[in-house]
Amino acid sequence: MIYFIKFVYSFVLPPGLFILLLLALAVWLWRWRREGKAASVLLGITLLFYLSSTNLVGDALIAGLEDDYPQPSAVQGDVIVVLGGGAASGTPDVDGTGNMYGSAANRLITAVRLHEQTGLPILFSGGQVFADSGNEGDIARRQLLGMGIPDSSILIENRSLNTEQNAQNTAALLREKGLSRPVLVTSGFHMTRAVLQFEKAGVAVQPYPTDYLVSRPMRMYTGRLSPSAGAVSSTGLALKEYLGILVTRLK
Protein backbone atom coordinates (compact mmCIF):
# COMPACT_ATOMS: atom_id res chain seq x y z
CA MET A 1 0.00 0.00 0.00
CA ILE A 2 2.80 2.43 0.84
CA TYR A 3 4.23 2.16 -2.70
CA PHE A 4 0.82 2.76 -4.23
CA ILE A 5 0.41 5.88 -2.08
CA LYS A 6 3.85 7.10 -3.17
CA PHE A 7 2.90 6.57 -6.82
CA VAL A 8 -0.34 8.54 -6.48
CA TYR A 9 1.39 11.25 -4.46
CA SER A 10 3.94 11.77 -7.24
CA PHE A 11 1.14 13.27 -9.37
CA VAL A 12 0.23 15.85 -6.72
CA LEU A 13 3.50 17.81 -7.00
CA PRO A 14 5.47 18.90 -10.07
CA PRO A 15 6.31 17.48 -12.51
CA GLY A 16 3.49 14.96 -12.03
CA LEU A 17 0.93 17.72 -11.54
CA PHE A 18 1.93 19.37 -14.83
CA ILE A 19 1.66 16.03 -16.63
CA LEU A 20 -1.93 15.62 -15.40
CA LEU A 21 -2.78 19.19 -16.45
CA LEU A 22 -1.33 18.64 -19.93
CA LEU A 23 -3.23 15.36 -20.23
CA ALA A 24 -6.45 17.09 -19.19
CA LEU A 25 -5.85 19.81 -21.79
CA ALA A 26 -5.31 17.20 -24.51
CA VAL A 27 -8.59 15.51 -23.58
CA TRP A 28 -10.36 18.85 -23.61
CA LEU A 29 -9.02 19.71 -27.06
CA TRP A 30 -10.10 16.32 -28.44
CA ARG A 31 -13.52 15.98 -26.80
CA TRP A 32 -14.91 19.49 -26.57
CA ARG A 33 -13.00 21.51 -29.13
CA ARG A 34 -12.79 18.70 -31.72
CA GLU A 35 -9.13 19.60 -32.29
CA GLY A 36 -7.95 16.05 -32.92
CA LYS A 37 -4.61 16.97 -34.50
CA ALA A 38 -3.69 19.46 -31.78
CA ALA A 39 -4.79 16.99 -29.12
CA SER A 40 -2.60 14.26 -30.62
CA VAL A 41 0.45 16.53 -30.72
CA LEU A 42 -0.11 17.64 -27.14
CA LEU A 43 -0.64 14.04 -26.05
CA GLY A 44 2.67 13.06 -27.65
CA ILE A 45 4.47 15.92 -25.91
CA THR A 46 2.85 14.93 -22.61
CA LEU A 47 3.96 11.32 -23.02
CA LEU A 48 7.52 12.44 -23.80
CA PHE A 49 7.50 14.73 -20.77
CA TYR A 50 6.19 11.92 -18.59
CA LEU A 51 8.82 9.42 -19.73
CA SER A 52 11.63 11.93 -19.23
CA SER A 53 10.30 12.50 -15.70
CA THR A 54 10.64 8.85 -14.64
CA ASN A 55 13.61 7.06 -13.12
CA LEU A 56 13.03 4.30 -15.67
CA VAL A 57 14.31 6.60 -18.41
CA GLY A 58 16.64 8.83 -16.37
CA ASP A 59 18.49 5.92 -14.77
CA ALA A 60 18.79 4.06 -18.08
CA LEU A 61 20.39 7.10 -19.73
CA ILE A 62 22.78 7.69 -16.81
CA ALA A 63 23.71 3.99 -16.58
CA GLY A 64 24.60 3.98 -20.27
CA LEU A 65 27.23 6.62 -19.52
CA GLU A 66 28.45 5.06 -16.28
CA ASP A 67 29.08 1.72 -18.00
CA ASP A 68 31.53 3.19 -20.55
CA TYR A 69 34.54 2.89 -18.24
CA PRO A 70 34.82 0.30 -15.44
CA GLN A 71 36.60 1.32 -12.26
CA PRO A 72 40.15 -0.14 -12.42
CA SER A 73 41.31 -2.59 -9.76
CA ALA A 74 44.68 -0.84 -9.44
CA VAL A 75 45.88 2.73 -9.92
CA GLN A 76 48.70 3.18 -12.42
CA GLY A 77 49.90 6.76 -12.69
CA ASP A 78 51.98 9.52 -11.16
CA VAL A 79 49.23 12.00 -10.21
CA ILE A 80 45.54 11.94 -9.31
CA VAL A 81 43.61 14.50 -11.37
CA VAL A 82 40.21 15.47 -9.98
CA LEU A 83 37.68 17.49 -11.96
CA GLY A 84 35.36 19.95 -10.22
CA GLY A 85 31.60 19.80 -10.46
CA GLY A 86 30.31 22.97 -8.85
CA ALA A 87 30.63 24.76 -5.52
CA ALA A 88 28.71 27.19 -3.33
CA SER A 89 30.28 30.34 -1.94
CA GLY A 90 29.75 31.87 1.48
CA THR A 91 28.24 28.71 2.99
CA PRO A 92 29.57 27.55 6.39
CA ASP A 93 32.09 24.74 6.48
CA VAL A 94 34.11 23.13 9.28
CA ASP A 95 37.17 25.31 8.70
CA GLY A 96 35.98 28.18 6.55
CA THR A 97 33.28 29.04 4.04
CA GLY A 98 32.32 27.52 0.73
CA ASN A 99 31.36 23.94 -0.08
CA MET A 100 31.55 21.53 -2.99
CA TYR A 101 28.32 20.33 -4.53
CA GLY A 102 27.52 16.63 -4.23
CA SER A 103 29.29 15.30 -7.31
CA ALA A 104 32.41 17.41 -6.76
CA ALA A 105 32.56 16.38 -3.09
CA ASN A 106 32.29 12.70 -3.99
CA ARG A 107 35.11 13.07 -6.52
CA LEU A 108 37.30 14.82 -3.94
CA ILE A 109 36.67 12.11 -1.33
CA THR A 110 37.65 9.43 -3.85
CA ALA A 111 40.87 11.30 -4.62
CA VAL A 112 41.74 11.51 -0.93
CA ARG A 113 41.19 7.77 -0.49
CA LEU A 114 43.33 7.02 -3.54
CA HIS A 115 46.05 9.32 -2.20
CA GLU A 116 46.02 7.40 1.10
CA GLN A 117 46.45 4.14 -0.83
CA THR A 118 49.12 5.30 -3.27
CA GLY A 119 50.77 8.44 -1.91
CA LEU A 120 50.27 10.13 -5.29
CA PRO A 121 49.80 13.92 -5.39
CA ILE A 122 46.32 15.32 -6.07
CA LEU A 123 45.75 17.86 -8.84
CA PHE A 124 42.33 19.49 -8.59
CA SER A 125 40.95 21.38 -11.59
CA GLY A 126 38.05 23.81 -11.37
CA GLY A 127 37.42 27.54 -11.12
CA GLN A 128 34.60 29.94 -10.34
CA VAL A 129 31.98 29.31 -13.02
CA PHE A 130 29.40 31.92 -12.02
CA ALA A 131 29.56 35.22 -10.17
CA ASP A 132 27.78 33.76 -7.12
CA SER A 133 29.42 30.32 -7.09
CA GLY A 134 32.53 29.30 -5.20
CA ASN A 135 36.00 28.94 -6.65
CA GLU A 136 36.28 25.17 -6.66
CA GLY A 137 40.06 25.04 -6.68
CA ASP A 138 40.41 27.31 -3.68
CA ILE A 139 37.74 25.41 -1.74
CA ALA A 140 39.33 22.09 -2.69
CA ARG A 141 42.72 23.19 -1.36
CA ARG A 142 41.22 24.16 2.01
CA GLN A 143 39.23 20.95 2.29
CA LEU A 144 42.15 18.74 1.24
CA LEU A 145 44.36 20.36 3.87
CA GLY A 146 41.55 19.88 6.39
CA MET A 147 41.45 16.16 5.55
CA GLY A 148 45.14 15.81 6.29
CA ILE A 149 46.62 15.98 2.78
CA PRO A 150 50.00 17.78 2.99
CA ASP A 151 50.35 20.95 0.98
CA SER A 152 53.29 19.42 -0.88
CA SER A 153 50.89 16.81 -2.33
CA ILE A 154 48.32 19.35 -3.57
CA LEU A 155 48.28 21.00 -6.98
CA ILE A 156 45.47 23.42 -7.82
CA GLU A 157 44.23 24.68 -11.17
CA ASN A 158 41.53 27.21 -10.31
CA ARG A 159 40.70 28.94 -13.62
CA SER A 160 38.74 26.35 -15.63
CA LEU A 161 35.08 27.01 -16.39
CA ASN A 162 34.19 23.80 -18.26
CA THR A 163 35.52 20.33 -19.09
CA GLU A 164 37.42 21.53 -22.15
CA GLN A 165 39.30 24.09 -20.07
CA ASN A 166 39.84 21.47 -17.34
CA ALA A 167 41.71 19.34 -19.86
CA GLN A 168 43.69 22.16 -21.47
CA ASN A 169 44.73 23.87 -18.23
CA THR A 170 45.52 20.58 -16.52
CA ALA A 171 47.65 19.47 -19.48
CA ALA A 172 49.71 22.65 -19.18
CA LEU A 173 50.19 22.18 -15.43
CA LEU A 174 51.17 18.53 -15.88
CA ARG A 175 53.86 19.52 -18.38
CA GLU A 176 55.09 22.23 -16.02
CA LYS A 177 55.42 19.75 -13.15
CA GLY A 178 56.90 16.93 -15.25
CA LEU A 179 53.93 14.61 -14.73
CA SER A 180 52.73 12.39 -17.56
CA ARG A 181 50.51 9.56 -16.25
CA PRO A 182 47.40 11.10 -14.71
CA VAL A 183 44.69 9.04 -13.05
CA LEU A 184 41.50 10.89 -13.95
CA VAL A 185 38.83 11.02 -11.23
CA THR A 186 35.38 12.28 -12.14
CA SER A 187 31.78 11.11 -11.99
CA GLY A 188 30.90 8.01 -13.98
CA PHE A 189 28.34 9.92 -16.05
CA HIS A 190 30.99 12.54 -16.91
CA MET A 191 33.95 10.27 -17.63
CA THR A 192 33.42 9.66 -21.37
CA ARG A 193 33.32 13.35 -22.24
CA ALA A 194 36.23 14.09 -19.91
CA VAL A 195 38.43 11.41 -21.49
CA LEU A 196 37.66 12.78 -24.96
CA GLN A 197 38.63 16.30 -23.89
CA PHE A 198 41.90 15.11 -22.36
CA GLU A 199 42.70 13.16 -25.53
CA LYS A 200 42.16 16.35 -27.53
CA ALA A 201 44.53 18.14 -25.14
CA GLY A 202 47.16 15.48 -25.85
CA VAL A 203 46.94 13.72 -22.48
CA ALA A 204 46.36 9.97 -22.06
CA VAL A 205 44.63 9.20 -18.75
CA GLN A 206 43.69 6.21 -16.66
CA PRO A 207 39.96 6.70 -16.06
CA TYR A 208 38.87 6.19 -12.45
CA PRO A 209 35.12 6.85 -12.40
CA THR A 210 33.32 7.51 -9.13
CA ASP A 211 30.12 9.19 -7.86
CA TYR A 212 27.85 6.53 -9.39
CA LEU A 213 24.17 7.51 -9.46
CA VAL A 214 22.46 4.27 -10.55
CA SER A 215 22.35 1.08 -8.48
CA ARG A 216 23.36 -2.25 -10.01
CA PRO A 217 21.58 -4.33 -11.06
CA MET A 218 18.75 -2.06 -12.16
CA ARG A 219 15.40 -3.43 -11.02
CA MET A 220 11.86 -2.71 -12.16
CA TYR A 221 9.27 -1.53 -9.63
CA THR A 222 6.38 0.93 -9.43
CA GLY A 223 8.54 3.79 -8.24
CA ARG A 224 10.46 3.78 -11.52
CA LEU A 225 7.26 4.85 -13.27
CA SER A 226 6.55 7.74 -10.91
CA PRO A 227 7.38 11.23 -12.21
CA SER A 228 9.81 13.15 -10.03
CA ALA A 229 11.98 16.24 -10.14
CA GLY A 230 15.02 14.09 -9.45
CA ALA A 231 14.33 11.96 -12.52
CA VAL A 232 13.95 15.09 -14.67
CA SER A 233 17.35 16.21 -13.39
CA SER A 234 18.91 12.82 -14.23
CA THR A 235 17.44 12.86 -17.74
CA GLY A 236 18.66 16.40 -18.35
CA LEU A 237 22.10 15.59 -16.96
CA ALA A 238 22.44 12.54 -19.21
CA LEU A 239 21.23 14.35 -22.32
CA LYS A 240 23.70 17.16 -21.64
CA GLU A 241 26.52 14.61 -21.52
CA TYR A 242 25.42 12.81 -24.69
CA LEU A 243 25.20 16.14 -26.49
CA GLY A 244 28.60 17.18 -25.16
CA ILE A 245 30.15 13.90 -26.32
CA LEU A 246 28.71 14.39 -29.79
CA VAL A 247 29.94 17.98 -30.05
CA THR A 248 33.40 17.02 -28.77
CA ARG A 249 33.74 14.25 -31.35
CA LEU A 250 32.61 16.52 -34.17
CA LYS A 251 35.09 19.29 -33.33
From TrEMBL:
Swiss-Prot/TrEMBL keywords: Membrane, Transmembrane, Transmembrane helix
Membrane-spanning segments: 12-30
Keyword Cell inner membrane carried by entry: no
Residue ranges annotated for the DUF218 domain, each copy included: 78-244
Family matches, as Pfam families: DUF218
Methyltransferase keyword on record: no
Entry protein name: YdcF family protein
